[in-house]
Every structure is written in C-alpha cells, then in structure tokens.
Amino acid sequence: MIVGFVAAAQISSASTVPAFLWSPGFSSNELKESVNYQIMSPKDLANSVLSQGGWSDLLCSERKNERTVDLAIVFVGRELHSSDVAGNKHVDPSLLNLLKASFTRSNFSMAFPYVATSEEETMENLLVSSFKEVCGHSLGVSNVAFSESCSLEGGDFKKLADLHSIHDHLVSRMEQRTKGETDLVVVCHGGFQSLKELDQQSPESEILNEVMSSVEQSGAKYAALYVSDPFKSIHYPGYKELERFLAEDTTKNASASAQVCDEVCKLKSSLLEGVLVAIVLLLILVSGLCCMMGIDTPTRFEAPQDN
Fold it and tell me: Could you write out the DSSP letters of every residue in 99-117?
C-alpha cells in the first residue's frame, strides 16, 4: 500500500500536497490502511476525514456518547509536495521517516496523496471551517486550541505560543477533561515569516516529533491529521521554488567540482608539459645545426696581396 502511494506521488503535480490521517487506538469502518488517490480540495479532505476517518464521531456534538478518543490533533506542515513523498533528495528524510512510522504503526491510517491548495486561504482555516460546516456550524468539542503560527478566522479559540505551551495545554486538559469529551488542537509549523525568521526556526520534523511526543506523554488517546500547505510559509511565494532551484544548482556544481584535476592528474600534466618543452627545444637545436651545416663557409682564406 505504501509502495502504491509512492508510485502515485511520482505522477502528481507540484500544486498538490499530501495528507496523512492516523490513530494508534481508534479505527473507523474496520479499515486498517487505505489510500484515496483522488485529487481533492481541502473541503473534500475535511469531509473524508469526518466520514471515512471517523472524525464526525469526535467533532460533531450529536455523537458525544460514541467518543473513544480524547484528542484530535491537526498538524499543518510547510514543506511537502505530493511529488516529495516519492523520495525527493531535497526534502528532509527525517520528516518522511517520521510520517511513515506514524502511518504504518497505527491501528488505523489513511493517506490522501493529492490535496489541492488554495492561494486565498490557509489550509488550517479551510479545514476548521469545513469541520464546522459539516457539524452544523459548531464543533462539538469541549476545547479548541491552536498555535499562534496558524491563521484561523473567527471563533473563540485558545492560542498556544510555543511547544512548551502546547505541552502544558495537553497535560492540563488530561487532568480537567471529563470522560467522553474530545479536544481539538491545531498546530502549524512556521507561518507568515521573514527570511531571517525562517532560517532560525527548527526543522519541521523536529517540531512534529516534539508535538507527538507531548501527546503521547500526556497519555491521551488521539487521532492525528498531517497536511502540508507549503504555499503559505512566508511572504515571498516564490522562495520555496527558488530554494529548490538553488539546491539543484548546488548539486550540479558539486558534480562539476568532482571533475577537478587531483594530485595524480597534476603530476601527469606536469610531465606532459616537460615532454612538450623538451620536444620544442630539440626541434630548435636540430634546426640550428641544419642551418649551420647549410652555410658554405670556406675552410681557408687567401692572404692579402701587396700592391
């Protein structure tokens, strides 16, 4: 199934992104692993997560008594395109390995290789608004929180400043939450940042690993959704494309530098230069001797006569 997902990602366009849904202790429709190869909008993704992924039992108010999960967590990344899942060498392998491990080790998992992105709205805002629409314009969760790097419109949501705040929030909610309640936490990597801030931020794989470690340490039963939204990473929309171009150019330069003359090559070139110089000098010597031999100089001169 993973092989099929990778093969499908190889034919995807750069305008689509992947999404992964998994849960270690929650299953829906008795499907352990599945892949939806359709190209879908963020709204379609939200509908699939609610219906096929079983999140309607977690987020919609009329299903409160059927909940077996304490936390529904959404992580919006900024790095992956659909084609990157096939093994793009410019993508952080730690991120791909982390997602693969989470996906394959869970009791229930779904993959969506082709999710179309929007240039007008952020992925997190589209997902949450779609959840609200399907659930009757109100989420039936006891608590909703999101990181400050997310861009969400409307709603009285709690903001989490950093990873430490996320960890404290998860621990406190485990102590305060009553049985049958489900929380929703939305975490976004990066956000609308300058190039200087982008260089200083931690890798996405590290942030995701820290978040999932905090979730597991809290002891909460959870269901997680990862989706990428690389086009909203910074103010400069072409930066990612420029970064990829520079990375490819660096690779080409590295291969070209591998052809630079080494010590053995330098020794051979020096010997060749010496041989060429010796041949030139020998030609000059032979030419000079030939010229001297060709001059008809008398061996004896007559003595001058007296008048």
Answer: HHHHHHHSSEEEEEEEEE-
> Rounded CA gap, 8 and 31, in Å?
20
Q: State how far the Cα of 58 lies from the Cα of 140, in Å rounded to an integer.
A: 8
Span 147-198, pLDDT tens digits: 888 887 766 778 888 889 999 989 888 888 777 778 889 999 875 444 444 4
Three-state secondary-structure class, residue 148: coil
Q: Once rounded to an integer, what is the mean pLDDT over residues 195-216?
A: 77
> Which of the 8 DSSP states describes residue 246?
H
Q: Are 113 and 8 in contact (CB under 8 A)?
A: yes
> Tens digits of per-residue pLDDT, 59-93?
886 655 555 788 889 999 988 888 887 666 677 88
Q: Which two tokens stand for residue 302?
A: 């007559």
Which residue's structure tokens are 């080409």?
Answer: 252
**To 5 degrees, how large is the angle CA 191–CA 196–CA 199?**
75
The DSSP code for 202 is P
Q: Identify each DSSP E strand in the chain by its residue range.
A: 16-23, 33-35, 71-77, 108-116, 143-147, 158-160, 183-188, 222-228
pTM: 0.67
Give the Cα separation of 237 and 252 in Å (integer). Answer: 25
